[in-house]
Structures
1.
Amino acid sequence: MDDVKQKPFLRTIRSFVRRTGRLTPGQQNAFERLWPKYGFDFSSEVIDPTVLLGRSAPLILEIGFGNGESLVEYAGKHRDVDFIGIEVHSPGVGHCLLQAEKENINNLRLSCHDAIEVLEQQIPDSGLQRLNLYFPDPWPKARHHKRRIVQTEFLDLVARKLAPGGTLNIATDWENYAEHIDLVMDDHGAFGLRERREHGGKRPLDRPATKFERRGLKLGHRIWDWEYVRL
Ligand SMILES: C[S@@+](CC[C@H](N)C(=O)[O-])C[C@H]1O[C@@H](n2cnc3c(N)ncnc32)[C@H](O)[C@@H]1O
């Protein structure tokens, strides 16, 4: 009995499957040249964002930024705010590194690791002003719904990392995931709904359009955007 109690919590269900994407030579080169400037490695130690980014500023974290184009665009328009982007797909991270260099972005740092572990281990409690989750993998098959990142345990973690008054901003183009998000968020006591938009692609809620959003729109999907406040 005690053995069971003492076992560490091991998360076995992940929100992603590592895709075997090869880095292009340009992305490989970007990792070699630009990771020291923009990247930070996974460790079990809490980071100090003022050391990581070299100043004290409000901090926005984005989970699953894909190829990073919308993250770089937003960071370029908000240079007084700091950003951390987390993405497990290394070609996407390589693409983002190149975009960040091209746009001369200095207020952004990147992690190429499971966002849940980075949040748990490396992000200080109450350290975030905002967390963006744009077009998380929808896992459309019912038997895969447990892989969806928006679950009560994930929201517990997000609630711990957001400062009071901070926001959780979500978008999806999957109606069934939108219904799931409405339910799980309503059920969770730590968040209040500030705004919810259902639209045809023209009214994103304080964010640029993303690659997956454009893909969804081409398929005829509608878009759902939410902003929740950490109470
Ligand atoms: C459907 S794509 C959306 C990408 C981008 N936000 C967009 O809208 O174009 C979801 C992304 O989340 C990433 N992802 C899923 N779970 C993750 C996790 N636990 N940690 C980091 N990245 C994750 C996937 O690798 C994938 O690139």
2.
Amino acid sequence: MDKDKLTQEKKEKSGPKMSRRKFLAICAGAIVLAGGGWALSRNELANRLAGRAMGAAQGKLPIDYVRQVIAADNEHARTIMWQSDSAMREPAVEYRLQGDEKVSSVKAKQETFTDDGVTVELYTAGLCGLEAGQKYEYRIKADGEADDWHSLQTDDGGDFSALIFPDSQSNDYSDWKHLAQDAAKRNEDADFFINMGDLVDNGEDHRQWDAWFDAVAGIIDRIPVAPLMGNHETYNEDWKVREPVAYLKEFSLPQNGSEEFARRYYSFDYGEVHFIVLDTQTDEAADFHQGLLETQQAWFREDVKKTDKKWKIVLMHKDPLQYRIANRPERQEGFSDEGRAWMPLFDEAGIDIVFSAHLHTYRNRGHIKNFQRDESGPLYILTGVAGNVRYPGLWVDHALDKVVAPQPETDNYLTLAVKNGTADIACYLPDGTEIDHETLKK
Ligand SMILES: [Fe+2]
């Protein structure tokens, strides 16, 4: 939610320009000596070190977090990224239609990125000119060697399904890992996944980014991620607002025509849907930039005008509704600053569904237009919580709430399936129990 320090633990900063491998080795040693430490780090580091050792034995490339990132046009393009501790020679991505002998290759852009005292090399390759609705496979090539093949499927412009994960920020990412992995197993045909912002609790803490990527291992190399930026991506380790540099580097997202606000908000197409991803961090951005809201709203109006897709879906981190908080009478039920700023534009643009997050509770508020119940307005879904930061009993139900998750809440995930003129949204508990289901027809 806001700047509250949800992870209290302070960590020792590693020295400047330390490589991650060196940092991991020091952490692993420290864990053995101390017999404790950050619960997640201990498990994840052990797994990572074991995996790295196995990888080395098998002659695989020493690379991390091979990932697919959503492109603006997913019928014909996809972005592949990965990272390594030290620079590699001639990094590239090789790809081919599954089962085909003809292999294409595209060079990767390499960038050295230092943050939180740790330096990594980031690689980005844009695959374009792909055939729609095809199964491909790709692999990383560098230092004259090739890594394993990964599958990649392009959008066929028709039916698709996606996984939607709310805020995954945690002080122990094991719940997030279980949720994501189990959801992916139950939905093996999902074409991509969305993470609704606040991916991590602290946007500068590289250990949390590592934990986030570890949690989606085996998923993110196979299907693309469409991430949103949340306010927690803008926090430094002193819990002050900074530029969301790690988020912007980790995900090479579609351009939006703005140099100043590049990739903070973007849109993409999948199937018959045009997705519009907003940056709701206008307050946080104000320390560094002026005019994020106005620039973004002008972009939104133009962007939505250009699409001929049947469905239009908005993804925004901060919720447009405002909830009362028990014992805080000054906070009234109604609409948030983000809601007052954006909801009239959603009405005007004929948006079908608005997914939001930030409050760590699942609520289906039904259709709202002109700030009141109206079946001709967008459907407003507050997506819940996918990490372990929960607020039991915090929010007082809103008059517009139609469905509220069972209390006290655990984590949850959603599926979105758009096919045969319907958009089907379902919400599930971690064990796969369905707690809400809504179908829109068009
Ligand atoms: Fe948030």
3.
Amino acid sequence: MMSNANELAIRGGEPAVKPYPTGRFHFGVEEKAAVDALFDEAIGTGNAIGYNGPQETEFCKEFAEYIGAGYADGVNSGTTAVFVALKALDLPPFSEVVVGCVTDCGGVMPIVMNNCIPIMADTAPDSFAPGPEQIEARITERTSAIVVAHVSGYPADIEGIMAVAKKHGIPVVEDCAQALGARIHGKHVGTFGTIGAFSLMFGKHICTGGQGGAVVCNSQELYWKVRRAADRGKPFGLDGVDTNVLTTLNFNMDEFHAAIGRVQLKKLSAIVAERQQSMAYLATEIFPKLKCVRYVAEKNMPAGSEASFWKAQILFNPEAVTCSRKEYCEALTAEGVPMAEHYLFAFMPKHRWYLERSNAFPWNSPQYLGDRFAEYPCPNAQKMMDECMFLLIQEHTSEETLRQFGEAFLKVDKALAK
Ligand SMILES: Cc1ncc(COP(=O)(O)O)c(C=O)c1O
């Protein structure tokens, strides 16, 4: 029988990628042992398993050390990490916070929940992150802060953004939810800005369980503000104060999550390195041979960047292809390559909660002095939303599977190029 290896799998051919384990194998016996130990102690002593305990103290020390930050606080999600970071900055109500328009809503809604107005900045060309120019274009006399996400593990031009922020005297929250382990000239993202926020939910590089997060900063004063913002305004770091001092909620991490997080932190460097090695192979051996896609990793990041590749951005080149991005992606998926056609739900200007803002608080408050009907065009971001697809790269991808991913790209590209 003739082999149909050259026929696309989507047309009945043999898939280029042989079945492989698709699970991320997040947890091992070490995480289980860490949790078991907490239970054993609780059962043996009759004491509770709580929060703000020794596991979290150690987790925060170890997390700060890994990142190279002075201080860290564990919280219960990436969304609450961004909320707590903003709350700790004590922003004036109804002030404006400039934020990149492509991100998770968990990186934007906390601005609104702090009674501030999110102002959408466009992204830099060929990037999901705003650059200094796009941020500066949105700064007004009402701007109180900037939130920048390092989207999909690709460092934004945070040094350029910090220069703009410094010029205007505005603090910066680095939203590193997708970028744990990413660095610029060896320095971790999250340590360039005034304060850094991380997500530690199960889909990210490492997790503390199903959910989790962390906030980092270098100033001790800010650290105490973070602690207060994360725990109902308890007077952490304030001598002689015996009541709560701030209206906020309880965003604490607990001892279970901290114990899991401590084990996961030990795995983080290998997870990031494996993702980087896989992408380095594809970037040198495969992507330059493709006609239908552009791989922009090096070009759309600042010099000295080491992406941590939460997802790999691959730009579709509509002029070079005989089909749509959707069909190209479906062809790759049929070959066995883990692909996402686009960054679903990430374009904030299209979200209903944002589109309906003019009738919602805080936009509709008479205390907001800006134009609540203002439009903030984001053409670069729209182009990225239309043209970028993602390779869902994971750690633990074997060399053989990676080689097969490469073959699948070459096969699909050859069949679908003009
Ligand atoms: C950029 C960004 N910010 C914030 C969040 C919110 O994190 P979490 O899901 O842990 O609340 C996410 C989640 O994906 C994110 O990608």
